[in-house]
Specification:
The complex is a heterodimer.
Chain A: H1 10-18, H2 23-27, H3 42-50, H4 55-58, H5 111-136, H6 140-162, E1 172-177, E2 180-188, E3 194-203, E4 211-220, E5 229-232, H7 239-257, E6 269-272, H8 279-287, H9 296-310, E7 315-320, H10 322-347, H11 350-366, H12 375-402, E8 403-408, E9 421-426, H13 430-435, E10 447-452, H14 458-477
Helix pairs in contact in A: 5-6, 7-14, 9-10, 10-12, 11-12
Chain B: H1 11-22, E1 37-43, E2 54-62, E3 65-75, H2 82-91, H3 95-98, E4 102-105, E5 111-118, H4 125-151, E6 156-158
Antiparallel strand pairs in B: 1-2, 2-3, 3-5, 3-6, 4-5
Helix pairs in contact in B: 1-4
Classes of the chains: A alpha/beta, B alpha+beta.
Chain lengths: ~475, ~160
């Protein structure tokens, strides 16, 4: 996101209303722990509340353009043997055999938006007609009202269409420098191997949208290539703003890595564009039944983490603002998936069986005269609990080993406690301040916090600190 | 008894009582529905959860729906803060994050509970025991989340063995 956010960007405004903590407790002196200089004043909170937008300004659209492979791929088929986490990134310019080049997916900007508009308008029209038909029986006044409802819905649809970048939602870009941005995608080949391939060159230009010129033939990344650094934007971010943030992060990585690494060793940034717009959009989507699925951008984030663990390749997952919510959901998805993959083996573990049987016997001995569960039932329950516990521990260890999580301008009220997390918190960032009232970390917390000065925008406030954390992690892995 | 409740002797109540008996240790005095519900204490293996030795699950029958309910925490302020409610609602959107269960506020007291409404085609002993076991696991998963939230300052008093 551009640093226009420091002027209280629409994203900031919107999240302040939809992701807000209760204003009153903070304004009344509630605790904002861990935020040096970041105490939310009554005046600040009041200003934010007054800046809240009306529905007409907030509406956008969202639909599902392309499912990621998260639900279909099986990264578990990739061998997990292979030793320590590797962050060494092969040169992205090294081409492998063109024989394995997948088809180039043609990027068709706006097609999906058109579909959203058409669907929405058609349905709105149908609603209006339906209401109008019914109203005929009871009088013209009601019919007029129904028509107004229909018109209002069409207006909503048009508003959504105008503000929509949904066709680019969850698209990914490889940023290697100011002059090198390429569209990139992921697939799994017939051997179950993850293959990233570049599909076109990208230029930002002056508008909101990048210009993508598809390659005649997709260019596969070198065999075994996986992203080492990834980033996802927040809400209400235009595609070119998001690409700008990814570029800024890349530049800061070069700065931070100047003394620590050779310039050529700075990995590219895999940037995922999230077109999410938040509450009002969700409501509109809900009306048309398009809400009840995961967001593709969340799926992308999940897949990045699953790939990292499955291939023992340490990857940084950097998220900003609303992107932290998606990423936190993704962390939980990944943890649940990895844990579930471990459950069958854990369930067959003789040690688990023995412990479950012993615990069931002990429970039977301790039981009083009241009714209780049978030993067989208890043993069955215990096997499940103990297997799950063991599987969870393995999943946590693997995610901690292969994923570095960084939330900048955090918008998550209660980030996952399962994995190590770096929170970067700017003292004047209203979003983080609002969720920050719950940052009273308990003993044993797996969250580290880095306090910085500044506001909510990623580029000028967070990029350099995030880059420093990434470089430090790269060094630690060497 | 409410109109929505199952009548004693109705097929669903009989079927659930048979399922409860099948998981009981004492066949002479098995678990049975009383006023359409039954509380089952599940002793937890030592060391599984530091501060909880028993999970209490209430099984309730409402017509043909079997509800599994387990208390997690009480509120330490009068109302559930909107941000906490938002977090709880976000969490349970994903089945894998909650193992299929949900958060809810109990009716009589403001107690945050883990909840699963089971809508079986038929209430069978095997089906009941399988769902019961899964619910115990899910309730403990949700409890972990609540413990985490309370540790970060959410106005929740998590139920512990000493309470």
């Amino acid at each position: 996101m551009s640093d226009a956010a420091d002027r209280v960007h629409p994203e900031t405004q919107h999240e302040a209303t939809t992701e807000r903590s209760a204003l009153t407790p903070i304004a009344a002196g509630g605790h904002v722990g861990g935020l040096d200089g970041g105490v939310a004043t009554t005046a600040l909170l009041r200003r934010m509340a007054q800046r809240s937008r009306g529905p007409a300004e907030s509406i956008g659209a969202g639909g599902r353009i392309e499912r990621s492979d998260v639900a279909h791929d099986d990264p578990g088929t990739t061998s997990r043997s292979g030793g320590v986490a590797s962050r060494v990134q092969r040169s992205p310019n090294t081409q492998s055999s063109a024989d394995s080049a997948p088809m180039v997916p043609r990027i068709q900007p706006m097609a999906s938006s058109d579909m959203v508009q058409r669907d929405f308008s058609d349905m709105a029209s149908a609603v209006g007609s339906g209401i109008a038909s019914g109203a005929k029986a009871v009088g013209n006044a009601v019919a007029s009202g129904a028509k107004a409802v229909g018109n209002a819905a069409v207006s909503v649809a048009q508003a959504i269409h105008r503000s929509d970048f949904n066709d680019l939602n969850s698209t990914q870009y490889l940023v290697t420098g100011q002059d090198s941005i390429e569209a990139i995608n992921r697939r799994v080949d017939e051997n179950g191997t993850v293959v990233y391939y570049k599909t076109g060159s990208v230029t930002r230009g002056d508008g909101d949208r990048p210009t993508i010129v598809p390659y005649d033939e997709a260019i596969p990344m070198p065999p075994g290539w996986l992203p080492s650094i990834t980033h996802i934007n927040g809400m209400m971010v235009k595609p070119n703003e998001g690409l700008g943030s990814a570029l800024r992060l890349q530049q800061e990585l070069h700065k931070a890595g100047g003394n620590a690494l050779l310039e050529d060793d700075i990995p590219s940034v895999l940037y995922t564009y999230s077109a999410h717009r938040g509450f009002v959009t969700d409501l509109a989507e809900c009306v048309w039944g398009k809400l009840y699925q995961d967001d593709d951008a969340t799926d992308r984030q999940t897949q990045i983490m699953l790939d990292a663990v499955a291939n023992q390749h340490r990857t940084t997952v950097s998220a900003h603002s609303r992107g932290t919510i998606k990423t936190d959901n993704a962390v939980r998805n990944a943890h649940a998936k990895i844990s579930q993959d471990h459950v069958p083996a854990a369930s067959e573990d003789p040690g688990v069986h023995q412990r479950a049987a012993d615990a069931a016997r002990a429970a039977a001995l301790d039981a009083g005269p009241t009714a209780q569960l049978s030993a067989n039932m208890l043993e069955s329950v215990y096997r499940r609990l103990l297997a799950r516990q063991h599987a969870d521990e393995l999943a946590t260890a693997e995610l901690d080993k292969y994923v570095q999580l960084i939330y900048a301008g955090n918008a998550v009220q209660f980030p996952s406690s399962s994995v190590n997390l770096n929170l970067v918190v700017a003292g004047s960032d209203p979003i983080t301040i609002l969720v920050g009232k719950y940052f009273g970390f308990a003993a044993g917390s797996k969250t580290d916090m880095t306090d910085i000065d500044g506001g909510h925008g990623f580029d000028d406030n967070y990029a350099s600190t995030v880059a420093g954390l990434i470089i430090a992690d790269l060094e630690a892995q060497q | 008894m409410t109109a929505a409740s199952a009548m004693p002797g109705e097929p669903n109540e009989d079927a659930l009582n048979r399922a409860l008996a099948a998981v009981s240790s004492d066949t002479a005095h098995p678990y049975r529905l009383e006023e359409h519900q039954c509380s089952i204490s599940v002793p937890l293996p030592a060391g599984l959860i530091d501060d909880l030795s028993v999970l209490v699950v209430t099984v309730r029958l409402t017509r043909d729906i079997v509800s599994f309910i387990s208390p997690l925490a009480s509120l330490t302020q009068a109302e559930l803060p909107s941000d906490l409610a938002t977090a709880l609602l976000r969490r349970q959107f994903f089945a894998s994050h909650t193992e299929g269960a949900s958060f809810a506020l109990a009716d009589r007291e403001d107690v945050l509970v883990a909840l699963y409404h089971w809508m079986p085609v038929d209430i069978t002993a095997d089906g009941f025991s399988a769902i019961f076991g899964r619910f115990v696991s899910a309730a403990l998963r949700l409890r972990d989340e609540v413990v985490h939230m309370a540790g970060q300052g959410a106005p929740l008093h998590v139920l512990r063995s000493q309470d």
